[in-house]
């Protein structure tokens, strides 16, 4: 018997704004522009929105600030903060709110001017007192620790991690909206400045501005909108730690649990997935998540990403917009993988479009490999 939330809600509008550099605009300006773009995409007005789902690195009470700025009075609000995965988690919360009648039109939204505001975000609100004496670079040293352990335990190489960055860049070169589109080779990654051993500059995500918005409604209403609906088939959330020293196993993330829950709700397996969008804050992320979500065995992620396997023309399309490594990364990236998956399923991605995808998997990451959220989306064909 299928899960009651499976396919109960659908995305009917998406919008992006300010991706790259949005000079002179504040985070809420960017968020509002993305929201209007999503509403236009869906053929709706701001006054139709009665549910707000948002997160922020700037605002202490983001749902209140967002609703005030947009000039709306939502019936339901959620600003649960689990890092960059928050917006993927919001698909589950919005689906529950819609299913139980708490709201009819859910807006998931985010905006950030991280790049033009100086490149820094207040992401470290709580000092990790047991790590501070070692003077780590937050957050990269945490990811470097996981990368070093994976290399030690499974023989993963810097060359294999470099192939993740190269694949992302090759997808970005097919995306006119991507921020970094210059040629990039494995050697370029290996030769780039070391930031936190073994991660070099090109192993790290971009620092950009950007905003995104997603509109969800009930599946009963979804066919009444201009675009092909994209249905939320399954979502799973999990987190096992906050600070990296408390991670149970540096080579295994909570995506193991999140993925199982999402697949169970969706009634699907990895073999049903046509396109994969992963939160690639660092190159090691892609390798870990492909393993933890079951696309390859634990320890085999390095070999899996080698030689263009996840690049255009490879066996598994991964991070088809260019990812956080080459497309956009304004502090929190989760909403952008969600939007890319939706656009792929709608068939509107131009040169980077995957052939007739019906199922897309999105995995959001928050903190230092801490919060993992998996959402599986599908077209009407897989309802």
From TrEMBL:
Pfam families named in the record: Thiolase_C_1
Span of domain Thiolase C-terminal: 236-379
Keyword Secreted included in the entry's annotation: no
Protein origin, superkingdom: Bacteria
InterPro entries, alphabetized: Thiolase, Thiolase-like, Thiolase_C_2
CDD domains from the UniProt entry: SCP-x_thiolase
Keyword terms: Transferase
Signal peptide: none
GO MF annotations in UniProt: acetyl-CoA C-acyltransferase activity
Protein name in UniProt: Acetyl-CoA acetyltransferase
Species whose genome carries this gene: Cycloclasticus zancles 78-ME
């Amino acid at each position: 018997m299928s899960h009651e939330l499976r396919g109960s809600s659908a995305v009917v509008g998406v919008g992006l704004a300010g991706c790259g550099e949005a000079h002179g605009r504040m985070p809420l300006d960017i968020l509002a522009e993305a929201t209007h773009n999503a509403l236009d995409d869906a053929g709706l007005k701001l006054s139709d929105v009665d549910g707000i789902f948002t997160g922020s690195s700037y605002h202490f009470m983001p749902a209140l600030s967002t609703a005030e700025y947009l000039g709306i009075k939502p019936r339901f609000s959620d600003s649960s903060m689990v890092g960059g995965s928050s917006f993927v988690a919001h698909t589950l919360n919005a689906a529950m709110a819609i299913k139980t009648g708490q709201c009819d039109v859910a807006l998931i939204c985010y905006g950030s001017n991280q790049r033009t505001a100086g490149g820094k975000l207040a992401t470290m609100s709580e000092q990790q007192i047991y790590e501070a004496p070692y003077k780590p670079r937050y957050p990269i040293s945490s990811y470097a620790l996981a990368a070093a352990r994976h290399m030690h335990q499974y023989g993963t190489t810097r060359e294999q991690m470099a192939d993740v960055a190269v694949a992302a860049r090759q997808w970005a070169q097919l995306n006119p909206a991507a921020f970094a589109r210059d040629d990039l080779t494995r050697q370029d990654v290996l030769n780039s400045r070391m930031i936190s051993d073994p991660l070099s500059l090109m192993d790290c995500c971009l620092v950009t501005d950007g905003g995104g918005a997603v509109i969800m409604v009930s599946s009963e209403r979804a066919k009444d909108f201009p675009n092909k609906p994209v249905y939320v088939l399954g979502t799973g959330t999990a987190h096992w730690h906050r600070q990296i020293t408390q991670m149970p196993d540096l080579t295994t993330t909570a995506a193991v649990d999140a993925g199982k829950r999402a697949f169970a709700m969706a009634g699907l397996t990895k073999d049903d997935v046509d396109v994969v969008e992963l939160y690639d804050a660092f190159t090691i992320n892609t390798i870990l998540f492909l393993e933890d979500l079951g696309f390859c065995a634990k320890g085999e992620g390095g070999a899996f990403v080698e030689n263009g396997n996840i690049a255009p023309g490879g066996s598994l399309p991964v991070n088809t917009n260019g990812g956080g490594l080459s497309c956009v990364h304004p502090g929190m990236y989760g909403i952008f993988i969600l939007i890319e998956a939706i656009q792929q399923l709608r068939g509107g991605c131009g040169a980077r479009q995957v052939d007739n995808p019906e199922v897309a998997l999105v995995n959001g990451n928050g903190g230092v490999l801490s919060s993992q959220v998996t959402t599986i989306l599908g077209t009407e064909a897989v309802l």
